[in-house]
Specification:
- The chain is α/β, with parallel strands linked by helices.
- The protein has 2 domains: 4-51, no CATH class; 63-222, Alpha-Beta Barrel (TIM Barrel), CATH 3.20.20.
- The protein has 9 helices and 8 strands.
- The protein has helices at 4-11, 13-16, 42-51, 63-84, 102-111, 124-133, 149-160, 172-185, 219-222, and strands spanning 21-23, 29-31, 40-41, 93-95, 118-121, 140-143, 164-169, 190-193.
- Strands 4-5-6-7-8 form a 5-stranded parallel sheet, with helices on one face. Strands 1-2-3 form a 3-stranded antiparallel sheet.
- Strand 7, helix 8 and strand 8 form a beta-alpha-beta unit.
- It starts with a helix and ends with a helix.
């Protein structure tokens, strides 16, 4: 016969849920935003939404879960840095392409306040979001992706306003554009470089590094 334990095993919550998702004794999905044993039954949330006149499809978002994950990620790095005596610091960023919803970005920005957790943009629209949502002088905005002159100029104008924006160079031609436009704008740019790794790892992206990699600069180009 079927059981709640079999449901939990079927959906693999223990493998990927990180303590946030489980199946309760009645077989309902239980969400623990803070992974502290206190849960919310998804079925109860749905019933309440229906009682308010809401209709499917619905997106159920647990804001506290977002906050907890941001905090946990940064605390893990803090702990590792302390244990290993690392002299640098961890400066994480949230890629806006993952989720552009204001409620999500708002929550992540608020949760990252104590960690100087920044934002990453891969296009001009995403950069506009990042500039508007960015808070704090020490948080980073990382600019990746294809960079036309408008994209570069927007980033440099925000830099002029005091934003800590790093333009990540993925093609050599971008350097000349950044320098030229920075002189026009009258601001000193912050430039990063994306390295084209020669060593291959494992897993899904094992074939992405090497000389034929789509993104990044080779060792010779970096030198």
């Amino acid at each position: 016969s079927w059981s709640a334990a079999k449901s939990e095993e079927l959906y693999g919550f223990k493998r990927w849920g990180s303590g946030h998702l489980s199946v309760d004794d009645s077989g309902c999905l239980n969400v623990q935003p803070l992974a502290d044993g206190r849960g919310i039954r998804a079925h109860d949330v749905i019933n309440e939404a229906v009682g308010m006149g809401q209709k499917a499809p619905l997106v159920i978002r647990f804001q506290a879960l977002l906050r907890h994950r941001v905090s946990q990620l940064n605390e893990v790095f803090r702990k590792a840095i302390k244990q290993e005596g690392y002299k640098g610091s961890y400066r994480g960023v949230f890629p806006i392409k993952v989720n552009q919803l204001r409620e999500v970005v708002d929550e992540i920005v608020a949760a990252g306040k104590d960690f100087n957790y920044g934002l990453e943009a891969g296009s001009k629209p995403e950069l506009m979001i990042a500039i508007a949502m960015h808070e704090g002088a020490n948080r980073l905005i990382i600019c990746n992706g294809y960079k036309d002159h408008d994209y570069i100029r927007l980033a440099l104008l925000a830099r002029k306003l005091g934003k800590k924006i790093i333009l990540v160079v993925e093609q050599l031609s971008e350097i000349d554009d950044i320098i030229k436009i920075s002189e026009e704008v009258g601001v000193k740019p912050m430039i990063g470089f994306r390295a084209k790794l020669q060593t291959r790892g494992e897993g899904k992206w094992a074939m992405s590094p090497g000389d034929n990699a789509k993104f990044g600069l080779s060792t010779a180009e970096l030198l």
